[in-house]
Amino acid sequence: MQVYGIDLSMEKFDVSYVDENGKEMTKKVKNDLGSISKFLHTVPEEAVLCAEHTGVYGDLLVFLSKQVGIKIALSSGYNIKHSLGMTKGKSDPIDSTRIREYGERFYDKLVFNEQDKEEMIELKSLYTLRSQLVRARKVLRTGEHSCSKKTMQSIIEKRHRDTALDSLDAEINAIEAEMDAIIKTNSELNENYRLATSVKGIGPIIATDLIIKTGNFKTIDTAQKAASYAGVCPFPNESGKMKGKPKTSMFADRKLKTLLYMAAKTIVKHNKEYRLYYQRKQMEGKHHFLIMNNVSNKMLRTIYSVIKSKIPYRQDYICLDPRERSLTSSTKKVA
Questions:
Q1: CA distance 171 to 183
Q2: pLDDT in tens, 214-229
Q3: Residue 25 is assigned to a structural domain of this protein
Q4: Domain, as residue range, for 239
Q5: Are residues 97 and 147 in the same domain?
Q6: Does residue 50 lie within any of the structural domains?
Q7: Where are the beta strands (DSSP E) in the chain?
Q8: What residue ranges carry the coiled-coil annotation (predicted)?
């Protein structure tokens, strides 16, 4: 399998490949529509592209690769760096060669990227903009609190601050309405959104964040993977005779973890089952944040269960013993 290693940047990218004679070759390609199209027409149909994931710099390459039917995998820079052992020297051509070597050695571990649908792209863009506006609103409100404690206050400054806050509130509400409309126009998004929000504690923003981060529960298709991604799933911390406390991953999505923590606080307060679970763990001497991680993990399992079964969450639902369910289904078949 011929692998093309690509080191992406904003204006251009370096390509490393092996030609028909077995000679290592490198080239530079501008990161624009015309140059990428010409480059892709020189790539054999059976070849694959392997590039480092650098955010939006690779979006055009992924889109055009899909149009011409060439597979492309965007891999983590951390994985590429730590898979090749100790290396010396750094430049764009050298990096592209290392990416190609990574793709050749770990071809079986490559995950080939698919272009998101239009609704998902629009939803991601609006959600990112909303997050930026929420941060700006938080900064203004923090400043408003500190200004209110001053001995002498500016009336003009307060008027402008209030105007900016009102404008931000209006924009955030409008964006949330747009996101809601996008979700409702897509049957798959709308169904999973409805099922996720049926779980007490999961609101519109957390459900939208989960849909975006998990690829509508398809890219991250199990609760265990989602818990690992969100950083609420501890991993063993042992070596030889040393046995430390299990730790969560430092590469977790902190935004999602924060949202899950807020949902966990709500569900512990309003759901009797979760409240009793929290109290029992407290009596066992467990730390507050450890319990909340467990509650978040439990919530994710519930969300994935309702999405898999296509049945909205019910607090009074009683799960039958699997042996009883098997016996019941067998009795129905006999009847």
A1: 18
A2: 989 988 889 999 998 8
A3: yes
A4: 206-309
A5: no
A6: yes
A7: 3-8, 12-18, 24-30, 48-52, 71-75, 238-239, 242-243
A8: 165-192
Q: Which amino acid is at 294?
A: N
Compute the distance between CA of residue 239 and CA of residue 320 in angstroms, rounded to an integer: 40
State the pLDDT at residue 242: 80
Nearest to 256 by CA among 215, 196, 208: 208
Torsion sign (Cα): 90, 91, 93, 95: positive
On whether the CB atoms of residues 84 and 99 are closer than 8 A, the answer is no
Same domain (yes/no): 250, 305: yes
Residue 190 domain flag = no
What is the domain count for the chain? 3
Q: Could you tell me the two tokens for 187? A: 């049957």
Does the pTM surpass 0.70? The reply is yes
State the number of CA atoms in the 13 A half-sphere of 221 facing the CB.
2
Angle, CA of 112, 117 and 123, to the nearest 5°: 115
Residues 103 and 156 placed together within one structural domain of the fold: no
pLDDT, tens digit (0-9, with 9 covering 90-100), for 305-335: 999 989 888 876 666 655 665 555 555 554 5
Q: Using alpha carbons only, what angle is made at residue 212 by residues 272 and 138, rounded to the nearest 5 degrees?
A: 75
Cα(160)–Cα(178) distance, rounded to whole angstroms?
A: 27
